[in-house]
Design brief:
- With about 220 residues, the protein is an all-alpha fold.
- It is about 60% helix and about 0% strand.
């Protein structure tokens, strides 16, 4: 079960790690923030036009339906407008908005309540008592060797396969591998132990790798030709 985090003036959308550096607002961000705080409606339109595509893309990563993503889009900017005076400028506006977007996605997933999730056991390898692999996932999907895959197609294929993962594993994978939170930060956001986060992440990566196997084999074929 995914537990949503609360984003307010004290919450960092993306907690800094020991190796990261504070991201201060540049001149453009400062000008936009000042304009927003002054209540200029034109600036709100600029904000939506500038960051709207990224907000919608993030929502579509976390949520399964376009309708949910569209609702999350609206909720995100409503939250941004309501908290703009509390923004403490400890990150860029883009990072701040992305953090709010992720939070809105997690709250929406949580609000959908507990539901039966599909198992990913068939995507995971099976080992015998000696630790030897005795079964691996085999896709029924045909890989035509005459087909080619460009970068845009591969990106779409990865996104589709990530979306096919159950919420529990998809969200963990996105937080850790796409949005760059540490394993400890991911565990805190989800309200689980670090060990549980590591287990979910490993299973999610393994399942995604199995789903992508046909495309990887096709790419390898074309690289070898």
């Amino acid at each position: 079960m995914v537990r949503a985090i609360r984003v307010d003036s004290r919450t960092k959308p993306r907690p800094m790690t020991a190796t990261s550096r504070p991201a201060y607002l540049d001149g453009k961000d400062k000008k936009l923030l000042k304009c927003l705080r002054a209540g200029d409606e034109n600036c709100y339109e600029i904000l939506v036009r500038s960051f709207g595509p990224r907000v919608l893309a993030t929502a579509r990563q976390y949520l399964r339906s376009d309708a949910d993503a569209a609702d999350c889009f609206q909720d995100t900017f409503l939250a941004v407008f309501e908290s703009v005076d509390k923004f403490e400028q400890r990150s860029t506006i883009a990072t701040w908005i992305r953090g709010i977007t992720i939070n809105q996605c997690l709250m929406r997933i949580r609000a959908q309540g507990r539901r039966q999730e599909d198992s990913i056991e068939h995507l995971l390898p099976v080992f015998d008592e000696r630790g030897d692999r005795v079964r691996s996932y085999t896709s029924n999907r045909s890989c035509g060797i005459g087909d080619t895959i460009d970068a845009a197609q591969m990106k779409r294929i990865v996104r589709e396969n990530i979306l096919s993962l159950p919420d529990t594993f998809r969200v963990t994978l996105l937080l850790r591998d796409i949005d760059g939170y540490s394993t400890k930060e991911t565990a805190t956001i989800l309200g689980i132990s670090v060990t549980a986060a590591k287990t979910r992440l490993h299973r999610a990566r393994t399942a995604l790798g199995a789903l992508l196997q046909p495309e990887m084999e096709r790419l390898k074929y074309h690289a070898d030709v």
